[in-house]
Amino acid sequence: MITTFHDSDMAGSEHPSLYTFAAWLVCLTGLGLTTVAAFRTVESFTRPVFEKAVPRSGSRHLGGIIGTDEAIARIGTFLWPVEVADGVVIRQEFDVHRDGLAGINLKTVTWHETPAAHGIRWSLQELSGPEWQTRSVVRSGTLDPTEADDWGYAEIRFPPIPATAGGRFALKLTADDGRPAKVMGLPLFEALEPHEPPVVRHRSAGATIDDSLREDGAAVIREIPANAVLDVLLIHAAGGS
Amino acid sequence: MRMTFGRHVGQFQNALGGVARSPVFQFLAATLAATVIFFARAPVAFMSPLFFAEDRAWTSQIVTRGFWETAFHAREDYCILGNVIVVWLGMQACEWLCGGDVFQLPRCLAVTSYLFMGAAVSLPILLLRRQLQPAFLCSAWLLACFLPLGIHSASWSGFEILGRAINLGYVFLFIAFVLIWHRAANVKKAWQAVPVDLGLLVCTATNPLCIAMLPATAWPFLRKLIGPPAARVAVLRDPVFLSFCLLTVGCLLVNGVPEPRGPAPETAVSHVSFDVAVEMGVARSLLYPLVWPIYHRLGTWSTLAVAAAATWCLWRFGQPRHRLVYIGGLATIGLVSIVLVTCRTELGALLEGYRSTFPDRYYYAQNLIAMLMAVVFATDVAERLRDRPRLAWLPAAALVGLALAAAVREPVWRVAKSQFLLAGDDRFESGARSAVRGRQFVDAGLNPDPDGRFVQVTVQRGCQKPLLLPRDAVVRSLTLRHPRRDAATRTGSTPTHVR
Question: Which of A80, B102, B309, B411 has the most Cβ atoms closer than 10 angstroms to its Cβ?
Answer without folding.
Answer: B102
